[in-house]
Amino acid sequence: MKKKKDKKLLSWKEAYAVNQKAFRLLYRRYPQMFTSRIICVVWEALTPYVGIYLSALLIEELSTSRNPQVLARLVLITLLSAAVISLLSAFLIKWRDTQCAGMYFKVKQIFTKKLLDMDFVSIDDTKTHEMLSTIDQNQNGGGWGLYRVIGNYEAIVSAILTLLGGIALTVTLFTQPVPESAGSLTVLNNPLFVLAVIFVMLAVTYIAPALSNKAGSYYAHRADSHNLANRLFGFFGWLGYHQEFATDMRIYRQDIICDKYNSSKTDTFGSKGIFAQYAKGPIGFYSAASAAVSVIFTGFVYVFVCLKAWAGAFGIGSVTQYIASVTRLSSSVSSLIGTAGDMRNNASFLKLVFEFLEIPNTMRQGNLPVEKRSNRDYEIEFKDVSFQYPGSDEYALRHVNMKFKAGERLAVVGQNGSGKTTFIKLLCRLYDPTEGVILLNGTDIREYNYLDYLALFSVVFQDFKLFAFTLGQNVGVKVSYDKKMAERCLRKAGFGERLDTLEDGTETYLYKEFSKAGVDISGGEAQKIALARTLYKDAPFIVLDEPTAALDPIAEAEVYLNFNDIVGDKTAIYISHRLSSCRFCDDIAVFHEGELVQRGSHEQLSADTKGKYYELWNAQAQYYH
């Protein structure tokens, strides 16, 4: 496997720009979520200073005059402020938690919406799936990407407010002079000494998060290695939980393969892997150094504050205030620097996110409405159509010319890779031709409203999907569906006998993800449900891609026998590798190596002994003698 290069950090300017872009994206979609979180952060950042200030006053009073009335008043104010703060905190936290519920899915929805709006040609591109998979791994493995943006902005706001509050309560630490009677300790009043102390505090405050960021950068730089290991573990670590793989797992002892990826000490997450080496080396060193520097800073603050108190610059109550506020001040600066570094580390992951979200839609979106014809009188024509998949130099289809009218039964046959599925995707306008034009009633299909044109087709693809919803919802593809129509379509598709055995009829859940009473269905039954779905849509064109591949011979014969009744007055395009199923079609189109090489009825094509159809037909016919 080729080793991938470490990720490079973006410049601070680029990092700021991409983080701002991410913030705007999230805020536009979920403004209340951001508002609730920021208000909570403001509240949590500033309210501790109320307690610090009141505590300092209490201690000062206790250490000096000890006036009972003053003490009682301070205690009452402290208790009331604590109660009000707690009450408002509970309200704000509840509001924030309500708005942030399902945060993972809210971020996921951004990518889902993009996929739904994306040109199918982009969705079908492996690069798109690789990009989305990498984004998922970045988020699920290291927490990088959009999800991290929210926490970082919270931390920035909190750090700034804490910093301002800390400055307000700390400034007098440096301005209150030591009395002249303090002797040699009056050096603490020297402006140069004060500046030196502030410089040391700021330097130490900067060093701690800088060291921590350096440790974290090793994870960011090796994100590709982390993601690959996470994907391997996500697959091999849970393979034994999949019921559909259980037989192969046992017959071929595939658990041994899984064990290789799950137990190796030299793998990425192993005790001898790359991150373990980092933890023992640079990550461990920088993390330990960061913690040590933080402790040194705390000690330095204690020494400075206590010296000024010892010299008589302020009382014991102020010691509490200054130590608490300076510590918070330092932590806010550290947080500010640390978060800025984390945002810079995250910027390269956000760049990939926007690379995905900004994949352009290049398909022309026409505005002509498709005429709704009650007699389904539509004609489609391919005129010199050729197609290349993105990034490929080879043509999947070349110079296809054909025309078919409403009510026809067209079979499309050919070997694997001959262009059959590409032809269907062009017909349904999932792709646009690289060359040539496809016409609907004499008009370029790109001139029509895209959704109007898609509505003309009901399709059963080989890789169709049924969901763990009710049977009727799978047929109607709606939450609220026409129950009688769904039942009628299921019976027409050959699912009637099984439907009669279901106590809840079309309200029966498929599979058991959402209902214990859900039913499992066979591959053949799934195909019948998918066929019923195409009938429910009642589109003028029905496309069937190997619709009987999972059916037993009797069920398949039943579909063939009732094909005309099933399809009705619709135009049917039928793709199959079983040429015996083509005999009930009016017309057969034979594809070979991306070209339309023959067209005609079964009798015509099977009589051409030099044609491709004759070759294919006889290759299968020998097994039926």
What would you note in describing this structure?
The chain has 625 residues and is an alpha/beta fold. The protein folds into 2 domains: 12-357, ABC transporter transmembrane region fold; 379-624, 3-Layer(aba) Sandwich (Rossmann fold). It is built from 25 helices and 10 strands. The chain has helices spanning 12-29, 31-46, 48-63, 68-100, 103-117, 120-123, 126-142, 146-175, 191-221, 223-236, 246-251, 255-263, 274-280, 282-310, 316-357, 420-427, 450-454, 471-476, 483-492, 496-501, 523-537, 553-561, 563-567, 602-607, 612-621; strands at residues 379-388, 395-405, 409-413, 435-440, 443-444, 457-460, 541-545, 571-575, 587-592, 595-600. A 6-stranded mixed beta sheet has the order 6-7-8-3-9-10, sandwiched between helices. β1 (379-388) and β2 (395-405) form a beta hairpin. α19 packs across α21. The chain is elongated and about 120 Å long. 29% of the residues are buried.
List the helices and strands and how they pair.
Blueprint lengths: L11 H18 L1 H16 L1 H16 L4 H33 L2 H15 L2 H4 L2 H17 L3 H30 L15 H31 L1 H14 L9 H6 L3 H9 L10 H7 L1 H29 L5 H42 L21 E10 L6 E11 L3 E5 L6 H8 L7 E6 L2 E2 L5 H5 L2 E4 L10 H6 L6 H10 L3 H6 L21 H15 L3 E5 L7 H9 L1 H5 L3 E5 L11 E6 L2 E6 L1 H6 L4 H10 L4
Parallel strand pairs: 3-8, 3-9, 6-7, 7-8
Antiparallel strand pairs: 1-2, 1-4, 4-5, 9-10
Structure summarized in a few sentences:
By secondary structure, the chain is of the alpha/beta class. It contains 25 helices and ten strands.
Q: What value does the average pLDDT take?
A: 82
Radius of gyration: 36 Å
Q: Which residues form runs of ≥5 with pLDDT under 50?
A: 1-6
Return the domain count.
Answer: 2
Number of strands: 10
In helices, the fraction of residues equals 55-70%
Could you name the CATH homologous superfamily of the largest domain? ABC transporter type 1, transmembrane domain
Question: In this structure, how is the largest beta sheet organized?
Answer: 6 strands, mixed
What is the CATH fold-level name of the largest domain?
Answer: ABC transporter transmembrane region fold
Number of helices: 25
How much of the residues is beta strand, in percent? 5-15%
CATH C-level name of the largest domain: Mainly Alpha
Distance between the termini: 50 Å
The largest beta-sheet arranges its strands as 6-7-8-3-9-10
> Based on the structure given, which CATH architecture of the largest domain is correct?
Up-down Bundle
From the helix content, strand content and strand pairing, which structural class follows?
alpha/beta
Shape: elongated
